[in-house]
Amino acid sequence: MAKFINFATFGNELYTGKRSYDFVGKRKIWFSIAAVMVILSIAVPLIKGGFNLGIDFRGGSEFTITNVTDTSTAIGEKAVTDVISGQLPRVSKLAGNTMQVQTEKLSDDETIKVKESLAKEYGVNQDQVASNFVGPTWGADVTNQALIGLIVFVLLATILMALYFRTWKMSLAAIAGMLFVQITTAGIYSVTDVEVTPSAIIGFLTILSYSLYDIVVVFDKIRENTSDIATSSRRSFGSEVNLAVNQTLVRSINTSMVALLPVASILFIGSFLLGAGTLRDISLSLFIGIIVGGLTTVFIASPLYALLRENEPALVKQAERVQARIDAEARRSTESAEAASSASV
Amino acid sequence: MARKGPASEARKILLWLGALTVILALLLTGGTLWWGANPAPKLALDLEGGTQMILAPKVEGGTSINDDQLNQAVSIIRQRVDGTGVAEAQISTSGTNVVVALPGNPSNETRDLIKASANMAFRPVIASAPGQATPADQIQPTPAPTAAPTNPSDSNWVTPDIGQKFQAFSCLPPVSEPDTGADPSKPMVACDLSNGFKYILGPVEVPGSDISDASYGLQQGAQGATTNKWAVNLAFNGEGSTKFREVTTRLNGYYTVNPQDPKSQFAIVLDGQVVSAPTSQAVITDGRSQITGNFNEASSKSLADKLKFGALPISFDIQSEQQVSATLGTQQLEMGLLAGLIGLALVVVYSLFQYRALGLVTVASLIVAGVLTYLAIALLGWSQNYRLSLAGVAGLIVAIGQTADSFIVYFERIRDELREGRGLIAAVENGWKRARRTVLASKAVNLLAAVVLYFVAVGNVRGFAFTLGLTAVADLIVVFMFTHPTLQLLARRKFFSEGHRFSGLSPDRLGAVPLYRGAGRFRTPDDRPAVAKKNIGAVAEAERRQTIAERKLAERTKANDASQDQATEGPDSKVSVKAAKDQD
């Protein structure tokens, strides 16, 4: 954009086609970028050996400190981080002046160190600190059930969209877009090495429904614009899809902004004022996911749908008709221009 | 204007929404005053703390528990907890113990359900009596059995000891202590607390571990039609089927002689209590039986659950129970809410910048959605034990974006209609028709995700699904019952209909030229917004979508000399043209 124009005008120009971004035509570029991102998102976790899973998934060590006088949780957190760096201990107070400190799985040496440090910080004897291994609260059964739920949901959503849009190709493009968002969001987690906690998983699921939702909104406009494609000779199928994406662009930008603003403020406050914790875990996955999701709808899912359908014989014929009409109009205008110029001689 | 139009319709819908909100608020107030509800939403474990129980599993036969069984125990307990509502419990293992942390103060029912051992068995009934205890001075001595018992239903099992215990046993408050550690090969005395009867039961014939599945549902009638009676369906594994066939063959023999004979009943015993004692009315050969009786939905579900969980041969001892503090504390919640408020303020600023006065409609809609969601969460906390975790709070904050999206889609459609050159009232109606489809289709995706995950997933994911579904429903209610009617009414106000600069709907800013511009001047083809060559389609589209009145009008304006006509655009864009002489 050469200079800033106000949004309403921007919207008008997009609507009328005066201003148009070629999302569909330049799809080779978008698809190449997407392919690189997917390959990275799959390769990095494989090379790294998976994700940085938190205590809820892997289990860890637990310390119980009895007869504590000062039951502040900050003391316990400090006691652990003093001895071992990079830990996010979870400290809670149990009734009867007992503190419970959970950390990731520690080696025997580390366990002894943490025990000493806790006893010192809380001002109790060593024998009042008990250690134990705890199992995951987010066990394999929770993961399995969540996965089954996801698979069922994706299947049902595919059927629902195929019925609503009356073409399975839209379903396919939408699900492909959604999977792309999931894979890249997961990839970003692996690359940045941020700990995966149950909260992050919840954020992940939110993104799943959000990205599919966003795709459905834009696809509905595409459906509307291409409903009479068989009989019209206005535009080829690809340009019709492109116009629909352009016409909903203002909505896409506005929606992404409105969704991002609250998440960004949680992420900002969660990271800078509170440090690590649930708020940061969940808002980070949401922040990444909303951005990737919004871009995917425009750059990946819609061009993919155009690609899937462009080669249908009926639409190829239609594109030829459109081309013929455009050529005819061009001829007419040059003829009339010639006529005008010859008349003026 | 005493005519029935969109405006009066819109007012009616707004009244309904007001009524709905008032009813919910009254419910909550009433619940708070009389039934111990809490006007604030309940909080989950991470924000409020709760109760932590350490359970030591015991395997029948006293062998030590292996890892597989421990994991099985965890998932069984998780199912039990999830069955009590949407409170997110944390269940993990610690050494060979199972640690269960529940938010708030779990009720005794929940506590019993969690530790309920799966010490379940099927025993035949030998004798039954109403539940009151016979006073000690009136107990009749029981004669000693005359012969060794030949089968588990034999009355010769009743020794003088058992007889005395049976008479002294009370199944009405104060209830006698149940015999939880009864020897499976010996008879026992037990109560059925649901009907207050007491029974003498024979030795165990089928252990609970032989149950393969249990479910509940409406009974099938003779012709396969569904009746309105609830029943519990029970299925056994191979070994259980064989044993159960033997039992029902013998018991059904008693039944055919005398349907009232207590010996025709078999008792399902859990932890020394009789859960149910159905009469064997048929011989079950395939291990699939149906228990019928005075069930309602809740009691049949409860029995089916007990039977299903009874398949695990592990029982639990509560080793310790203590209050546990919140792991996150109030600071995280306060910060989260603060962040939410800041985010909301930014959303308000952004929508005002984007939509001018229409942005106020967005803000008002969000407030209505917020009030409805709050009421729903507080009510669900009271009725379903739904609790907000920090992840839930974050989910709600994210929902702001998705809720606002319905309004954005709708406003953009109205603007599209205005760009086509429609009058505002018509644009609102048409824009709504098109936006409604999109909103419904996209929310259907969210609702589908919520429903599927709620029914399939467990633990935290279930709480998330609940929140997602809740916000989607609240959003639909608001967009249908608040945003659209409000716009219908606003469209009739001068500020908007004349396209004030700050209304967010000014035609000039939208590059549209209204059809009728006052002073008898109509839009002429030259006034059309400049449409690029490639957008001929949009014009064609617009022409195709003109209302009949508009089309006629366009024809007339071409035909007539506009200065002689006076047209007024009434509500509903019905155009009345004062006829010129040459009109048909």
From TrEMBL, chain A:
Protein name as catalogued = Protein-export membrane protein SecF
- The protein's role, per its UniProt record: Part of the Sec protein translocase complex. Interacts with the SecYEG preprotein conducting channel. SecDF uses the proton motive force (PMF) to complete protein translocation after the ATP-dependent function of SecA.
Q: What family does the Swiss-Prot or TrEMBL record give for this protein?
A: Belongs to the SecD/SecF family. SecF subfamily.
Q: Which HAMAP family match?
A: SecF_B
From what superkingdom does this record's organism come?
Bacteria
Q: How does it sit in the membrane?
A: Multi-pass membrane protein
InterPro entries in UniProt: SecD/SecF_arch_bac, SecD/SecF_bac, SecD/SecF_CS, SecD_SecF_C, SecF_bac
- Its primary localisation, in coarse terms, equals membrane
Gene3D superfamilies, alphabetized:
Multidrug efflux transporter AcrB transmembrane domain
This protein's record includes keyword Acyltransferase: no
Keywords, A to Z, come to: Cell membrane, Membrane, Protein transport, Translocation, Transmembrane, Transmembrane helix, Transport
Please indicate if the UniProt record lists Transmembrane as a keyword.
yes
Query: Where does the Protein export membrane protein SecD/SecF C-terminal domain lie?
Result: 116-310
Q: How does it assemble?
A: Forms a complex with SecD. Part of the essential Sec protein translocation apparatus which comprises SecA, SecYEG and auxiliary proteins SecDF. Other proteins may also be involved.
Subcellular location(s): the record lists:
Cell membrane
Segments passing through the bilayer? 29-47, 146-165, 172-192, 198-219, 257-276, 282-308
UniProtKB/TrEMBL annotation, chain B:
Q: Which residues form a coiled coil?
A: none
> In this record, what's one Pfam family?
SecDF_P1_head
Q: Which residues form the SecDF P1 head subdomain domain?
A: 198-314
The segment(s) forming the Protein export membrane protein SecD/SecF C-terminal domain are 315-483
Q: Where is the composition biased (Low complexity)?
A: 132-150
Query: What domain of life does the native source organism fall in?
Result: Bacteria
Q: Where is the Protein translocase subunit SecDF P1 domain?
A: 70-125
Residue spans crossing the bilayer: 335-353, 360-382, 388-411, 440-457, 463-483
Cite the InterPro entries for this sequence: SecD (IPR005791), SecD/SecF_arch_bac (IPR022813), SecD_1st (IPR048631), SecD_SecF_C (IPR048634), SecD_SecF_C_bact (IPR055344), SecDF_P1_head (IPR054384)
Q: Which UniProt keywords apply?
A: Cell membrane, Membrane, Protein transport, Translocation, Transmembrane, Transmembrane helix, Transport
Q: Where in the cell is it found?
A: Cell membrane
Residue numbers spanned by region Disordered: 132-159, 554-584
In what way does this protein cross or attach to the membrane?
Answer: Multi-pass membrane protein
Say what the protein does: Part of the Sec protein translocase complex. Interacts with the SecYEG preprotein conducting channel. SecDF uses the proton motive force (PMF) to complete protein translocation after the ATP-dependent function of SecA.
Family statement drawn from the similarity comment of this UniProt entry: Belongs to the SecD/SecF family. SecD subfamily.
> Subunit composition?
Forms a complex with SecF. Part of the essential Sec protein translocation apparatus which comprises SecA, SecYEG and auxiliary proteins SecDF. Other proteins may also be involved.
Q: Which PANTHER family match?
A: PROTEIN TRANSLOCASE SUBUNIT SECD, PROTEIN-EXPORT MEMBRANE PROTEIN SEC
Q: What is this protein called?
A: Protein translocase subunit SecD
The record lists the lineage as: Bacteria, Bacillati, Actinomycetota, Actinomycetes, Micrococcales
